[in-house]
Amino acid sequence: QVQLVESGGGLVRPGGSLRLTCAASGFTFSDFYMTWVRQAPGKGPEWVSSIDTGGGFTRSANSVKGRFTISRDNTKNTLYLKMNSLKPEDTALYYCARSAGLVTRPLSRLGQGTQVTVSS
């Protein structure tokens, strides 16, 4: 059974940092590209960042480029998103998803996601 469990969200002030974690199980993690997606209240899902199977190639949305870093640890079956210089517009439910290839579009949510709120 495929499971993706996101954690690490919370309330942070503008300019602050968070690191999100996505724990994967039920499939061969290293065989799949991984993606972070976010959905702000009242808006559709937005693709954030993707990483290839080995972790050597990444793509990020212009809105987060230079501030967010996606990475993975295949020995721990875990995906990460390090978020720096957070802005109020980064407030959203963040979730991870897997795919067979690199994508730059939102994918469906499998897990419960983790809420990030950026506010003073």
Biggest sheet, in brief? Answer: 6 strands, mixed
Strand order of the largest sheet: 2-10-9-4-5-6
Query: What is the CA–CA distance across the termini?
Result: 40 Å
User: Number of helical runs?
Assistant: 0
Low-confidence stretches: none
Record field, number of beta strands: 10
The general outline is: globular
Helices and strands, in N-to-C order? EEEEEEEEEE
Mean pLDDT value:
96
Question: How much strand content do the residues show?
Answer: over 45%
Structural class: mainly beta
C-alpha Rg, in Å? 13 Å
How much helix, percentage-wise, in residues?
Answer: under 10%
Secondary structure layout plus pairing:
Layout: E1 3-7, E2 10-12, E3 18-25, E4 33-39, E5 45-51, E6 58-60, E7 68-73, E8 78-83, E9 92-99, E10 114-118
Explain this structure to me?
The mean pLDDT is 96. The strands form two sheets. This protein has a six-stranded mixed β-sheet, with no helix packed on it. Strands 1-3-8-7 form a four-stranded antiparallel β-sheet, with no helix packed on it. It has strands at 3-7, 10-12, 18-25, 33-39, 45-51, 58-60, 68-73, 78-83, 92-99, 114-118. The chain is 0% helix and 48% strand. The radius of gyration is 13 Å and the shape is globular. The N and C termini lie far apart (40 Å). By secondary structure, it is an all-beta fold.
Short structural description:
0% of the residues lie in helices and 48% in strands. By secondary structure, it is mainly β.
List keywords for this structure.
globular; mainly beta; single chain; 10 strands; six-stranded mixed sheet; 120 residues
